[in-house]
Design brief:
Layout lengths: L70
Amino acid sequence: MFPGRVEIWYDGKDQDCSGGSDFDQDGDGADRTPEGDDCDDDDPARAPNHEELPGDGVDQDCDGEIDEAS
């Protein structure tokens, strides 16, 4: 493990020494684990702490519903 090393996500190790969660590949603050609640860890625009944007066909807030009214 050293700064600049390629991170291997979801193995519980911080190969690149970034100090961030090894279960938050997209850096949106939500972990992708059985206990976590990030519905798409490849898209930082989708996480439980995001506001739903009606009419775009995307579930931004990860509640399982698409385009519900706020």
